[in-house]
Amino acid sequence: MSPSSLTVRTITPEQHLEFVRTRRSASFLQTPAWGRVKSEWRSESIGWHDGAGDLVGVGLVLYRQLPKVRRYLAYLPEGPVIDWDDADLAAWLRPMVAHLKGKGAFGVRMGPPVVTRRWTAAQVKEGIASDEVQRLGQVAPEERSVAGARVVSTLHELGWKPQAVEGGFAAGQPQYNFVIPLRHDDGSARTEDEVLKGMNQLWRRNIKKADKAGVEVTKGSADDLKLFHDLYVHTAERDGFTPRPLGYFRTMVEALSAEEPDRITLWLARHEGDLVASTIAIRVGGHAWYSYGASSTDKREVRGSNAVQWAMVRDALAAGADVYDLRGITDTLDADDSHVGLIQFKVGTGGEAVEYAGEWDLPINRAIYTAFDLYMSRR
């Protein structure tokens, strides 16, 4: 295939989904169903076709209209799903930009699913313990990705701008995630015992404590979403974040379940009939995510959160997943920062911190984009 022969055009959600099914890893934010979840954005499935007309890449585009103007920010969260290892990345991005410009986009925002650096759990733990370290980037990584560095360099050369925006038009997908690899370097699956032994002593003790206390973890159904949401609202009040409404989760479960029966799973951890923790897990191919979680302030001593996480990890292993993704962490390693508690919880799983290339913008109409950028900076 000659990359220069690539063309981009609108495809059907069915074509989009069929291509995603051929991939071992694609973000759930790049599935057709996610467009139905984000109903406040107009969505479009686009496809890359080679010279023979074969579909070789896909993307979910979310369009957000500017107030009073028929111009849009075109956003591809954690996407698109293309060959990011191709040295001629421009041949993939240029026809995409041309297509989006034709749809009225004044700018494009995307989040390449490309890892740039990795740190072991031990390295992150040492960074938190050190008075000299404030940020993850100050710790020498276990691995620097040559491919990731090439993507970042190419994007700069092509005029894309790295973003550090949260909220607003940007959905603010995390640049740093914490993941548990579920396969060895040779591709063979890790066993439950191997994953458990990789966790720190506190995690292993808490999993045993939950089991001994009689915590029962089960998969729920859409009928149980109200139970999850009540506990989630309680968690939001305790931890100081704004909860999403119940309707959002109903739409999310309905849309993702319609796409694949095992795409999204609600988990419930109970102790003597009381709901002590509840989570939502998502899986696309070999990539499994912990998406949302809630826990009770009461009965914290029975360690329901550890129990439900371990159940999700075991389920991902049983499904043959390659990685269990605990999603975002901040890059702060300052022991006095309020976010460090979440990092320490995830680090205890024995996985690794990964840095992605982050989100990038390409201004198409510079005047409108500059005004948009100014508007966003004042929010």
From TrEMBL:
Write down the species.
Nocardioides guangzhouensis
Could you give a GO molecular-function term held by this entry?
Answer: aminoacyltransferase activity
Entry coiled-coil feature ranges: none
Q: Which GO terms describe its biological process?
A: cell wall organization; peptidoglycan biosynthetic process; regulation of cell shape
Protein name, UniProt field: Peptidoglycan bridge formation glycyltransferase FemA/FemB family protein
- Keywords in alphabetical order, please: Acyltransferase, Cell shape, Cell wall biogenesis/degradation, Peptidoglycan synthesis, Transferase
A Pfam family this chain is assigned to: FemAB
Q: Which family would the database say this protein is a member of?
A: Belongs to the FemABX family.
Q: Which InterPro entries match?
A: Acyl_CoA_acyltransferase, FEMABX, PG_Glycine_Bridge_Synth
